[in-house]
Amino acid sequence: MSIRVNIFGVGVLMAMMSQPQAAMRQYSADADSSHWTVDKKARLECSLNHEVPYYGDAIFSVTASKNKDLTFNLDMVVRPETYAFAGLQSVPPVWRAGVPARDIGQMQLLKKFDGELDNVLSWEMLSELEKGYFPTFHYKDWQNSQDQISVALSSVNFKQAYWAFLQCRDNLLPYSFEDISFTVMNYKKNSSELTKSSRKRLDMIGEYLNNDPNIESIYISAYTDSHGGRWPNLELSRRRAEAIKEYITAKGVAADRIVTEGLGEKRHVAANDNEIGRNRNRRVVIQISRP
């Protein structure tokens, strides 16, 4: 009986040894290779970047807008082959022995896409990094079911770059390209002078154009109400469109990328038998596009 037991035990041991062994593959920058950099595009976009050696890049970014919301992107060299979730923990540094890791959320993994997080979790990750902790993702490897993957962001050399990133974010324009890409402005009666609110809108467009060199084309169409005669109104609309073009070219946009059109009394958007309607018809429409 004892011989049979021993043979059975050896068989189990050999079977266990023949099976693949689970492993935790860890990716993280060490103290010497931990670098954080800030990249900014005028007053339109800021990013805080961190390379994870042999894995990819961790990128916090924010673009010009009213809220200036933050996003996080885990740019993987090898993207997911399936749909899953990665857990996210705040892991203390080694010198804080005995302090447990804390679960702070999870990130959805989409097939063939990088990992992304929204504003709330992105800010929480930054606050943990500022405290010296290591936000760490962990998930089951989609290429080897026996392995677990751990990807950590190092807080070494973080604070100075983080401060530069916050300053960059604070200086971003409080509106986006989508906010100015289609604009309708109005004029004073029998004049090429914009109303006060429209002048503010045009200044906002001009400020944006000063910061975006990638404008592809601008189409300006001007209209009048029905008072004053068709020919004078047609000429007035043309002058209005050209005045806007001169303003925009002064902001550095090439004149050959700007198309103007004066349409006079055509295409009314409201009735001309009352002042409110005529105010709406005295307008210029600016449409801006980029690649």
TrEMBL record:
Entry-linked SUPFAM superfamilies: OmpA-like
Keywords for this protein: Cell outer membrane, Membrane
Broad class of the protein's primary localization: membrane
Domain OmpA-like: 175-291
A single GO cellular-component term on record: cell outer membrane
Pfam families: MotY_N, OmpA
The keyword Membrane is annotated on this UniProt entry: yes
Subcellular locations according to the entry: Cell outer membrane
Keyword Transmembrane helix belongs to the record: no
Protein name: OmpA-like domain-containing protein
Organism of provenance: Pseudoalteromonas amylolytica
Database matches in CDD domains: OmpA_C-like
